[in-house]
Design brief:
Two copies of one chain form a homodimer. Chain A is α+β, with helices and mostly antiparallel strands. Chain A is about 30% helix and about 25% strand. Chain A has ten helices and 14 strands. In chain A, the strands form three sheets. The first copy, chain A, has a seven-stranded mixed sheet. In chain A, strands 1-2-7-5-6 form a five-stranded mixed sheet, with helices on one face. The longest helix of chain A has 18 residues. Chain A is globular. Chains A and B meet through α1, α3, β2, β5 and α5 of A and α1, α3, β2, β5 and α5 of B.
Chain lengths: ~350, ~350
């Protein structure tokens, strides 16, 4: 489940023009971008009809009032094109995406279901590569796939396959990650460079005429989350900055807690290649999706320790404190290298469709 | 989750020619039919890589070894075309399909997740109708949608939307529905007329030049299952005869229990309109999918009582005992009105694609 689904309440409180009714007429690609239009679609259409106290909490995974143990459920559909990209593929993404939605709730991923929608003409060899990739990732994550379904739709122009996974996890600790717990002074942490996934997918769509070694960061972040929990880091809230990127995710957290978030330009880790690619292609780095990064708001006293713990993992060697929470005002602000501050709004329209 | 996913082990034991490797080359529409090709795809590709003791049980829903309570997980993708058909729509189907996969395991549906893949160009009004339909069905079923996700893919020729739902249910009783418990003498029961769903979808695709009032039978069967459990009916196994129809479902049960199943032509309930349509269109009634029927194998002593209980529900007023289990031989046999017996094999290829 994408955070976008449940963070819509956040968006409708924003002061930007919300009058245009985006959910009449045709669904456009921007409705799948994770930005404002996705938000409107979810709030004004899906939650309008399907909302309930659990769904309305708008979390990455739904914590269920179960018997004895705290459990969490989530779902995520994957439609990435191309199916294979440097650093990953739709299979790996479909497992990591759902594990990560559980992980950012503090839930240990245990079981996964997968619904496959295959386009006739997809080569079985292609599908097998995808499934092998899922199996490898499940094995690494120690998660069981327990149910599946397959449907086939008519031929298209390219090989296509959509995978919807649902995940079931358990909360084995007593802490609650909830934006309501965010206080002024709390620090913002990311577990690594931002935007590698979206850059890798974009660059694998066509040849832009420059060489690069950019790979998707797609990975299961549960080992990182688990290490932070075990070390009793006071985690106030956690997200994975997927569609809409760091800027959209932090805007959502800011509105959810009613406080301002300030991040510092030089502190946000980007790979030099992603930076160069974004510059050449006119993309805003702060809106590029990652698929294997965690974004946490932690108690100030634990921030340095949290970063140290993360950096011990190869997948998080670039972990950093990137900013902090303030109680004057709202929204997300970027302190530039020159010391000036500018607001970073929620993603408008789409940056790049079908990145996950 | 479609039974087809997990009933593949059944199929590969069959003696029909299994040598042609169906999972090399292109995926075809028959791979989504719920018949033999779907089975091969699942067994030789999906389960080959993703199999585990829970998945390999090949049940409609996966029972999870949870803390304290017995819980079940399932998933089902829905790609039906057209999106709306007499008696239902993809929204209603997406809720009922998943509730029913839980119900036939004896699990009470509690929570559902939904992943929407929308085709750009889908009208928001269309989507809203679908979502309203889901909401109505969830309300009726007393099931909560707790997580969702939305992705948008490029424009197509027709309005399209795919919905993958995952369901979480609890088993509040001590009985186990498992084909291993089937014995000679057990009776086969269905809860109503067979094939209405597939006939309704087919007839709404184009005008075949005859008037009819055929409606899909799509419905949540949990109330029926619950009533049978409460009455302590000794249920040996249960399925919902969706893709592949009655013949495929009973073949799978026959192989799973290692016994023969005999059904009697005059006893299987079909609506006269579905019968007439199947005759005109050259379709085999025994392979037509239902989406709101249960198929149960029950202890002989409880069979009459079970049918009486079912008939008290409007959705099951045509419930009937349609056959019985024998311990001489294997497979599914049809006793015709003339008294002769002919085998009904598992569905080969496809009858009609995208019915669910």
């Amino acid at each position: 489940m994408d955070p976008a689904w449940f963070q819509v309440r956040v968006r409708v409180q924003r002061t930007i023009n919300m009058k245009d009714n985006l959910v009449t007429g045709d669904i456009g690609l921007a409705h799948g971008s994770g930005g404002r239009k996705t938000g409107r679609l979810i709030k004004d259409l899906f939650l309008k009809h399907l909302g309930n106290p659990i769904a309305n909490r708008m979390e990455d995974a739904a914590e269920l009032p179960a018997q004895g143990t705290r459990i969490a459920l989530t779902t995520d559909s994957h439609v990435v094109q191309p199916l294979f990209f440097p650093g990953g593929d739709i299979g790996r993404l479909s497992i990591c995406g759902t594990c990560n939605d559980l992980a950012v709730k503090g839930a240990k991923p245990r079981f996964i279901t997968a619904g496959f929608i295959l386009r006739a003409g997809l080569r079985a060899e292609t599908l097998e590569k995808i499934v092998v990739s899922m199996a490898e990732e499940l094995h690494k994550a120690n998660v069981l796939l327990v149910a599946g379904d397959t449907k086939v739709i008519e031929t298209g122009e390219v090989e296509e396959c959509y995978i919807t996974t649902a995940g079931f996890g358990v909360l084995e600790h007593n802490s609650t990650f909830a934006p309501e717990r965010i206080e002024a002074g709390d620090k913002v942490i990311v577990s690594g460079t931002i935007g590698d996934h979206e850059a890798a997918v974009l660059l694998s769509r066509q040849d832009f005429g420059f060489e690069h070694h950019i790979k998707s960061d797609v990975a299961n972040i549960w080992p990182l989350v688990s290490a932070l929990i075990d070390a009793e880091i006071d985690i106030k809230a956690m997200r994975d900055p997927t569609r809409g990127g760091l800027a959209t995710t932090l805007n959502e957290l800011s509105t959810a807690c009613g406080k301002a978030v300030l991040i510092k330009e030089g502190h946000v880790p980007f790979s030099s290649e992603v930076k160069a690619a974004a510059e050449m292609l006119g993309l805003d780095l702060y809106y590029l999706a990652s698929e294997g990064r965690l974004l946490a708001i932690v108690n100030e006293k634990d921030a340095e320790k949290a970063v140290e713990i993360l950096q011990a993992y190869p997948q998080a060697r670039d972990a950093a404190i990137i900013g902090e929470v303030h109680d004057d005002g709202q929204g997300l602000w970027l302190e530039t290298l020159l010391g000036s501050q500018r607001p970073l709004l929620i993603l408008e329209g789409e940056q790049l469709p079908r990145i996950c």
